[in-house]
Amino acid sequence: MSKxxxxxxxxxxxxxxxxxVGLGILLIILLIVMFYPSGDExxxxxxxxxxxxxxxxxxxxxxxxxxxxxTTLNLEVVxxxxxxxxxxxxxxxxxxxxxxxxxxxSLEYLEEELVAGKPIGEIAVNEKSKYxxxxxxxxxxxxxxxxxxxx
Length: 151
Prior knowledge:
Structural class: alpha+beta
Shape: rod-shaped
Order of helices and strands: HHEEEHHH
Helix content: 40-55%
Strand order of the largest sheet: 1-2-3
Distance between the termini: 91 Å
Strand content: 15-25%
Number of strands: 3
C-alpha cells in the first residue's frame, strides 16, 4: 500500500512567491528593453550628421568689440545652428547711451530684424541712424564670422 502525503501550503507563502516571480519577470523585461540595441539609433545618427552638414552656425555666444569714441563696447551675438537668437551689448553704460542716443534703439531694431530671420545683408537701414546701424552691422558680421561652421 502506498502512503498518501499531504502537503499544506499557506496562502501567505503563495502570495509572496507570486510577487517575487512577477518582479523577476518585470526586471528581465526591463533589462531587455533597456540594453537591446534598436535601429532607431542609426537613423538618429544620420539625422544628426545631416543637420551638422546643413547648419550655418556653431551654436554659442560670440563677442565682437567696437570702438565708440573713447569707449570700447562688447557686442554679444547668441546663435543656434541656423538662426540668430539675440544681439545685445555686454557693458553699455549710461554715459554711452547719453552721448550716443541712437545706439540702443538701433541695436534693438537690428536685433528684431535678425531674430525674425532676415539675413543681415537685407536689413534696411534707417536714414536717421544709418552710420550707427552700419557700425553695428559690421560688429554683428564680425561676431558671425566667428560663429560660422568651418568645413
